[in-house]
Hints:
Layout: H1 6-10, E1 15-19, H2 26-37, E2 40-43, H3 44-52, H4 56-63, H5 65-82, E3 86-89, H6 98-107, E4 108-114, H7 117-123, H8 138-156, E5 159-162, H9 168-183
Helix pairs in contact: 2-9, 3-5, 4-5, 5-6
The structure holds shikimate-3-phosphate.
Amino acid sequence: MKRKNPERKRIMKDNIVLIGFMGCGKSSVGAKLAKQLSFSFYDTDKWIEEREGKSINDIFGLNGEEYFRNLETNTIRKMEKTFHHAVIATGGGLPLRHCNIKILQQLGTVVYLKVSKDTVLQRLKGDTKRPLLQGGSPDEKVECLLSQRESIYQGCCNILVVTDQKSINQIADEIITQYKAIYKN
Ligand code: S3P
């Protein structure tokens, strides 16, 4: 008798959740992926900005990081209840809360887009939209945050794709191949 893919059994919903560090390409890859699969595309940061009527920078500045993290948890709780056939790009810090990891895993297949420090620094050079990277040395900040987060991203994903030096199309194709392999059985 053919055995079911054990990974498939664990993943209950058909959504794809993209996680990874700032600048790893979650939003651009997510939009491409959604188009290729005819899924809807959502971005937790955009969702929060629209509902709060403020930029992420302003939410951090006016309400503080803890407030923003609560909004992230509430957002994925809502998505988990109603979403199907969706690709969801998440903010880079969202998997840091332990309770969020469980929700993300219930939401769908968790895909970690791995990126190196050098690629992040190159892609986010001059960026002013990410409060955690403002002021001080970007090199040190990225290095420190990446080393704190790497094992968390890696520990909660179903699929890992290294994104350095790859095009958006290449990354989307790799995700689709691995996603279909999980859903084959
Ligand atoms: C954050 C990442 C950002 C945004 C916020 C905090 C983080 O999203 O949610 O600035 O803690 O890594 P991106 O990963 O889309 O840049």
